[in-house]
What does this fold into?
Amino acid sequence: MGGPQLALPFTFVGSTSQGPENEESERNVVVLQKKVAGLSEAALDRFLLRARRAAGVRGSITVMVTGSAAMRALNRQFRGKNKTTDVLSFPSISGLSRARVESAGEIAISAEIAAENALRLGHPVAQEIKILTLHGILHLAGFDHERDNGQMARKEMKLRRALGLPAALIERTQSARSRPHRTKIEKAGRRPEVASKSRSSA
It folds into this structure.
């Protein structure tokens, strides 16, 4: 996607879990601003590395699990939508500072919405966070399920099986289209005015 180059949005303060500085991990960063039952920063970092490898994404990824108010602010700033959402992906942009050269991008996840989804779908909230993380990683890899004729959906289905996850976000959203309450997901693009949605409705 073209347009002006925007800095990635996260500035973290406090404790973070960083993977070891080696060729495989490239220092992923995980921040749990909101605690999640059954999930530590180290555990999510391990899953992030596995999922990143499986998706073929090069470069480090930062994942922030935060509150719905923060998600609403990010969604408003980058997509012009004044509402919260479960996950936003911010792809890295070529030409940024050298500190960002090896970054694939950043993912923000709402702990509250993940908990609601998990309760409704009958699996642990820690697993829901991993499902959202995988979906965000695929957007960082360049997939866009609104424009790719099912390519992302097929990839996500394959990867969630390999990673031992339940129904992928796209798959379960498609199966719920006839129901009034459905899971939604969004992607933050490089230009707020043209950012693609990862959620299933406007």
User: Anything to note?
Assistant: The chain has a mean pLDDT of 76. The chain has one domain: 17-194. The chain is about 35% helix and 15% strand. Helices lie at 41-55, 68-79, 111-121, 125-140, 151-162, 169-175.
